[in-house]
Write a structure and sequence with these properties.
Helix content is 89%, strand content 0%. It is an all-alpha fold. The radius of gyration is 43 Å and the shape is rod-shaped.
Length: 103
């Protein structure tokens, strides 16, 4: 069976390994910095979208308040109209009964 020769790790080779690892980690750090900047850009985009949603919700709420006021006014008009119809009908029936009583 053939045996493999054991390589010696000299200080120079260890320094080369250390330098290579530093270069690789520097590259990884640069890539993570790029990822962080992209996330910040995306977050700013979401902030704009959230602001637009809040603005739209405020407009919808304001429209809803206007509609509520219009429905309240319509309800008051209907109540007054129905009360007028009821009073007119009651007056007509009362007048008819009074006219029949005189005959």
């Amino acid at each position: 069976m053939a045996t493999m020769a054991r390589e010696a790790w000299t200080d120079e080779r260890l320094d080369d390994l250390k330098d290579g690892m530093h270069r690789e980690f520097d590259q990884v750090n640069r890539e993570f910095e790029w990822v962080r900047r992209e996330f910040e850009r995306v977050d700013r985009g979401f902030e704009k979208v959230h602001a637009e949603i809040r603005e739209t919700n405020a407009r919808i709420d304001s429209l809803g308040e206007g509609l509520n006021a219009r429905f309240d006014a319509m309800q008051r008009t209907m109540v007054v109209g129905f009360a007028s119809i009821a009073a007119t009908t009651l007056a007509s029936v009362s007048g008819a009964i009074a006219a029949n009583a005189l005959l």
